[in-house]
């Protein structure tokens, strides 16, 4: 199944650094400026109660939906879109603004991570191609993305994520 990427665009971030606008420019995603226009799909929502897993690929009927907004305005109310809401598991940002920070992904990183979890690494690489740091995202997250993609459901994804969060906590204790 070919994945389609759609983005609800709030326009509250720096246009020069906006990955969603660049995706639109390269015809890799469709942007919507009205929430009512956004199609039904798997909504990547950091406030969702359930983690994204390969099992969700069929639920969204091949449609991934992201919200493009500033991290400062990414509150739960911002994600009121129709669809199956899922949170991405632990992944590390490769973008220049949040490099190395877990869970602080750009829109393109979120969409690419979801594509990998759904088993479509080629789609992820295609989305990331216009960004000079795009391949770095896939390299930094190679092992977790592979492991999440091998999971049967959300509970298995959370168990894998817990391994990475424990490693992060151990690293923080050593500093």
From TrEMBL:
The lineage of its organism: Archaea, Methanobacteriati, Methanobacteriota, Stenosarchaea group, Halobacteria. Coiled coil: none annotated. Transmembrane segments: none annotated. It catalyses: an N(1)-methylpseudouridine in rRNA + S-adenosyl-L-methionine = N(1)-methyl-N(3)-[(3S)-3-amino-3-carboxypropyl]pseudouridine in rRNA + S-methyl-5'-thioadenosine + H(+). Belongs to the TDD superfamily. TSR3 family. GO terms for biological process: enzyme-directed rRNA pseudouridine synthesis. Keywords: Cytoplasm, Ribosome biogenesis, rRNA processing, S-adenosyl-L-methionine, Transferase. Aminocarboxypropyltransferase that catalyzes the aminocarboxypropyl transfer on pseudouridine corresponding to position 914 in M.jannaschii 16S rRNA. It constitutes the last step in biosynthesis of the hypermodified N1-methyl-N3-(3-amino-3-carboxypropyl) pseudouridine (m1acp3-Psi). GO terms for molecular function: rRNA small subunit aminocarboxypropyltransferase activity; S-adenosyl-L-methionine binding. Residues 42-165 form the 16S/18S rRNA aminocarboxypropyltransferase Tsr3 C-terminal domain. Its EC number is 2.5.1.157. This is 16S rRNA aminocarboxypropyltransferase. It comes from Halopiger xanaduensis (strain DSM 18323 / JCM 14033 / SH-6).
